[in-house]
Write a structure and sequence with these properties.
Length: about 475
């Protein structure tokens, strides 16, 4: 008999033990799901070295019905989630991650998920009148939110209409009532493409929403995995073993065997409702209220004492801006290499722009036009186009993650007349705070490229930088360590 390959059930509790062992998890009893969880998490994540927070004894809910936040917000937590040696420093993590996404993507096809006979997620199954989302402590994260959001650090599992492609994306999930949620999938996102195909065919759209599992799940379902690839495969490549799933009774969609809570059901044609507003990753409530598909929840599966994984966005730095900056910077680096841009020293997608709106690439200039090529591709590649606004290209002596250095280069190495290019009618979003001021109802935006490299034709006579040389700095650092507090 063929041996079933080993599988990882994406068990949140196993990872919480790891995080606790690393000193990266704190218990918080007695908070209120209405605004307190959100504000505590938002303020926690702004403190250097802050831990993940595990909320229990949430006001009005049974002990054991928990919410965990800030799971991806430190180098140690992020590296442990990515199954890498634990990195305590940001620089160490970025270096260790270089080239990894390319490898994971290449390996992904080898890691088809495996089906388990059962799993902890099936400990409780609710259907019919037993379906009531309100038993879970869905947080009202921000004061102006349109309702409680059960899904932030979640994985939305869907299937294509005319192929076998299963997609897993992170899209926010708002509670409408005991058996209806709103699903906000921005046009162009893979879940939205699959939804549109079902609606065009007049067919219900099957959905399974994983409300909590190992945070590696939402870390990967929340980044741009290539079109047509299943995120479970990508996660399998990171784990080095396939993801273990069970099939939803109703839709047959695959869900991690150790998921905490899963909502299963359908979005029916024509069923849409006002959704939001919701405090967004760029730090604003979106300009205009919008409608979103409604999912009718027909089954709930949950573990005993289930844990919601929450990842509330807000003005950056927020719950997931650090992990997005790290992950998207690595993906953008790979995208530049894949597009044939040589001598890329480093890339950084800044948290201030929600890892989308202010991105910087450092290059070793090799030829005239190299800088514009790098900037344009960074701005327009698959991972980078959505909501990109400012793209800056700098020489390799500038650290792209250091805003002080980047803006020094902009101030001193660019000539606005020739070094700023504008791309019109780019890929924007109705959730862009600037959308209110745009002249079109379609979500276009304009994008600026700032070439802050020394002019290529003046590399030989560009003024030298007035700063102690690396060698002199090293000597002085050694001799004057006590004075310079190094
Ligand atoms: C916590 C979190 C919340 C997110 N919320 C949304 C959302 O509500 N709608 C959306 O379209 N994208 C949202 N995103 C971004 C998408 O998850 C991301 O673009 C991802 O690539 C989408 O998956 P897809 O490429 O398979 O469509 C969110 C990401 C994170 C990490």
């Amino acid at each position: 008999m063929a041996k079933r390959p080993a599988g990882n059930p994406l068990d949140l509790r196993a990872w919480l033990d790891t995080a606790r062992g690393l000193g990266e998890l704190k218990d918080v009893p007695g908070a209120d799901a209405k605004l307190e969880l959100g504000a505590i998490s938002e303020m926690n994540v702004k403190i250097d070295g802050a831990p993940a927070l595990l909320f229990d004894e949430i006001k009005g809910y049974p002990k054991g019905f928990r919410v965990v936040t800030c799971t991806t917000a430190s180098p140690a937590r992020l590296s442990s989630l990515l199954r890498m040696p634990v990195e305590r420093s940001h620089r160490g993590l970025v270096q260790a991650l270089r080239g990894k996404p390319r490898g994971w993507q290449a390996e992904a096809p080898k890691y088809e998920p495996v089906v388990a006979e059962t799993g902890p997620v099936l400990e409780n199954i609710r259907s019919g009148q037993g379906v009531d989302i309100n038993i879970f402590p869905s947080p009202l994260w921000h004061e102006k939110d349109g309702g409680p959001y059960i899904g932030t650090g979640c994985c939305v599992v869907t299937k294509d209409y005319d192929s076998d492609w299963v997609n897993v994306g992170t899209y926010r999930v708002m509670v409408h009532d005991k058996n209806h949620v709103g699903l906000d999938m921005i046009p162009g996102k893979h879940g939205a493409i699959q939804y549109d195909k079902h609606m065009k065919a007049g067919k219900p759209f099957p959905v399974a929403i994983v409300i909590g599992c190992d945070p590696l799940g939402y870390l990967i379902s929340g980044i741009e995995v290539p079109f047509g690839m299943c995120e479970y495969n990508y996660i399998g490549a990171i784990l080095g073993e396939p993801v273990q799933v069970v099939h939803g009774e109703l839709t047959g969609l695959p869900i991690p065997a150790a998921a905490e809570i899963v909502l299963e059901g359908y979005c029916y044609p024509g069923d849409v409702k006002i959704e939001g507003p919701f405090g967004e990753f760029h730090g604003y409530y979106p300009g205009k209220e919008g409608t979103a598909p409604v999912m009718t929840v027909e089954r709930i599966y949950h573990r005993n004492d289930p844990i919601i994984v929450g990842s509330p966005p807000a003005k950056p730095p927020n719950d997931y801006s650090y992990s997005k900056a790290v992950m998207r910077s690595a993906l953008l680096f790979d995208a530049l290499l894949a597009a044939g841009v040589p001598d890329v020293a480093s890339v950084w997608a800044h948290e201030i722009g929600g890892a989308r709106m202010f991105n910087v690439v450092a290059i070793r200039q090799r030829y005239a036009g190299h800088a514009r090529q790098a900037a344009l591709i960074l701005n327009q590649c698959g991972v980078g186009a959505y909501m990109s606004r400012y793209t800056v290209v700098v020489d390799e002596d500038i650290d792209p993650s250091n805003l002080q250095e980047v803006m020094w280069a902009v101030a001193t190495r660019s000539d606005p007349e020739v070094d700023i290019d504008i791309i019109r009618h780019g890929m924007g979003s109705k959730n862009d705070p600037m959308f209110v001021a745009y002249r079109s109802d379609a979500p276009y935006n304009s994008k600026a490229i700032i070439d802050a490299c020394r002019p290529y034709d003046h590399l030989h006579d560009f003024p030298a930088v007035a700063e102690a040389s690396k060698e002199l700095q090293a000597q002085v650092r050694e001799k004057w360590r006590h004075l310079l507090k190094l």
